[in-house]
Amino acid sequence: MRKVEGEAKNIRTLLSNVRFYIDYYQRDYKWQTKHVNELLNDLTEKFLGSYDPKDDRSEIQNYDNYFLGSIILCEKNKIKYIIDGQQRLTTLTLLLIYLRHREPHEDQRAKLLNLIYSDVYSKKSFNVDVEERNPFIKSILDGEDIDTNDKPESIRNIIARYKDIEKLFSDEINDDAITFFSDWLIENVYLVEITAHTDEDAYIIFETMNDRGLSLNPLEMLKGYLLTNITDKEKRNYATDEWKKIIEKVKNLGKDEDADAIKAWLRSQYADSIRERKRRAVPLDFDKIGTEFHRWLKDKHGRLGLNKSDNFYDFINKD
After folding, report:
1. Looking at CB atoms within 10 Å, which of 109, 198, 297, 312 has the fewest?
2. Are residues 201 and 145 in the same domain?
C-alpha cells in the first residue's frame, strides 16, 4: 500500500472550490429520517452548549468544535472520488441548502452557496457531483416542487431527507441564531479526510473500515470487491449499471430479497458442503454463504474462476 494521507478539515475547507465524485463501488444514498434526526440533534446540542444570544459573531471561534467522523477519498488524475462518507456529505449539502434558504444576510448566503455549488475550472457544478442527482439537488436549491414518482431510490431519499431537515430542525435556533449556527457549522465542525491514490489502496481502507459490522452490509461489500477487480473502465461502468438493474429488480420483491437472492444463487452453484450436525462441527460452504457470502466469495475466488478482470466482468454480466 502506498502512503495514505489524513487531514482534519472543517466544512468550509473541505467543500470550498472542490468537486467530489461518487466512485463505482459506492452505494446509493440511503439515509433515513432517524439518521438525519440524530445528526441534527447532535449538531444542535453541541452548538447550543456554546451559544449566547448576547455574543458577537466573532465569539464563534471560541465555541466548542464537533467531530463528524472521517471520509475516504481516492485521488486519481487530480479528481477526488468519495469511497466512504457520501451519506454524510450529501446530507451536509442538504443542510447547507436549508440554511441558505433561512439565511437573512446576502453575504452569508453567498458563502453557503460556494460550499454547495461552485465554479471549478470555469465549470459550475455541485461540490458533491453525481450526475443523476444534480437536477434534483438543483430543484431543492431553487425551492421547486419535485415529483418523486418512478424516481430511483437515491432521489426519493434525498428529497425526503430534505423535507426531514425542514421539519426536524430545532426551533431553538431561531432567525436571530441561524447565522451563528451556519458560521459555527462551517468553521467548527470537522471531518478527517483520508486520501489514497489507487483503487486497490482505497478499497483496502474501505473494506477495513466497513467490514466489521459497521456501515456497509455484505451485499455492498460484495459489489465493491467485484467491481474493484474490473480494470477496464468502460467494462466496469457497464457492470456497475448491470448490477444496479439486477439488484433493483430483486429489491422490488421485498425487504432483504436482494441479499437472499445472492445467497440462494451462490448456494445453488457452489455450496457442496454443509456443517455436520454434531458437536464442535465447523461451518462449511452452505453455512458461510448464509452469513458472510461476500467474505466467502473473496476467499474462494479461484474456485469460482475469478482470476482476472474479464472473469469478474463476466461474473456480473453473464453468471
Report:
1. 198
2. yes
What interhelical angle do 218-228 and 199-210 show, nearest 10? 170
- CA proximity to 270, closest of 306, 297, 247: 297
Judge if 127 and 193 occupy the same domain. yes
Distance (Å, whole) CA 7 – CA 25: 23
The grid coordinates listed for 141 are 436549491
67 backbone dihedrals φ, ψ, rounded to 5° = -100, 120
Q: What whole-number distance in Å separates Cα of residue 239 and Cα of residue 277? A: 40
- Of the candidates 206, 234, 232, 235, the one whose C-alpha atom is nearest the C-alpha of residue 294 is 206
Collect the ranges in the chain with pLDDT lower than 70. Answer: 1-3, 23-27, 119-123, 206-216, 277-281
Alpha-carbon distance of 93 to 162, in angstroms, equals 10
Q: Three cell numbers at 122? A: 470555469
Residue 76, H or E segment: strand 66-76
CA distances 6 to 3, 129, 130, 297, Å, are 10, 22, 24, 31
Give the model confidence (pLDDT) of 132-184 as tens digits: 888 999 999 999 988 888 888 889 999 999 999 999 999 999 999 999 999 99
- Residue 147 CA to residue 252 CA, distance in Å, equals 20
Handedness of CA 199, 200, 201, 204 (dihedral sign): positive
